[in-house]
Design goal:
The protein is of the alpha/beta class. The protein has a single domain, classed as YqgF/RNase H-like domain (Nucleotidyltransferase, domain 5). It contains 4 helices and 5 strands; from the N terminus they run E-E-E-H-E-H-E-H-H. The protein has helices at residues 66-80, 99-115, 127-133, 139-156, and strands at 33-38, 44-50, 56-62, 84-89, 119-123. It has a 5-stranded mixed beta sheet with strand order 3-2-1-4-5, with helices on both faces. Helix 3 (127-133) packs across helix 4 (139-156). It is globular, with a radius of gyration of 14 Å. 37% of the residues are buried. Residues 1-12 have low confidence and may be disordered.
């Protein structure tokens, strides 16, 4: 039986997905610019941030599916020029996978292949709930911001 629980935390973070042909995992500490992504069936939140400030800023939400969503993300990648992507992966409160976990992981693989960037993942449980509680006008972009800041704090401010 396949284990769908999140991988255990470690100090060595490697991208879950990266462009085929890379000889070794790329350490995120080598990068400065990142794009955070809150994957959703109908809306996908986007945030941008960097390792210098350790901060992220909500960018926008994309209301599209399939190729249209990937096209919109590719346009934002060209505009903001991140060196890596950070994708929130949803899990049940007990750490078990649910229907959207597999969809988000598949989406992450496609992001890496289409954008030729490493994709790091973050456990995104409660990110949208937190964004709504903070009164965000765009809860999906704010959730992407929370996901990205969580990643930046884990990597650069431990």
């Amino acid at each position: 039986m396949k284990n769908n629980n999140p991988p255990p935390a470690s100090n060595a973070i490697a991208p879950l997905f990266q462009e085929p042909g890379h000889p070794a995992p790329i350490a995120p500490q080598q990068f400065q610019q990142f794009m955070g992504i809150d994957f959703g069936q109908k809306r996908t939140g986007i945030a941008v941030g960097n390792s210098i400030t350790g901060c992220a800023t909500p960018c926008k939400s994309i209301v599209a599916q399939g190729d249209a969503r990937f096209t919109a993300i590719a346009a934002l990648v060209r505009e903001w020029q991140p060196q890596a992507l950070v994708l929130g992966i949803p899990w049940h409160p007990d750490g078990a996978a649910h229907a959207n976990t597999k969809k988000a992981l598949t989406f992450g693989r496609q992001l890496a292949l289409r954008n030729k960037l490493p994709v790091y993942t973050v456990d995104e449980r409660y990110s949208t709930t937190e964004a709504i509680a903070l009164g965000a006008a765009d809860s999906d972009a704010a959730a992407a911001c929370i996901i990205l800041e969580q990643f930046l704090n884990q990597i650069f401010h431990v």
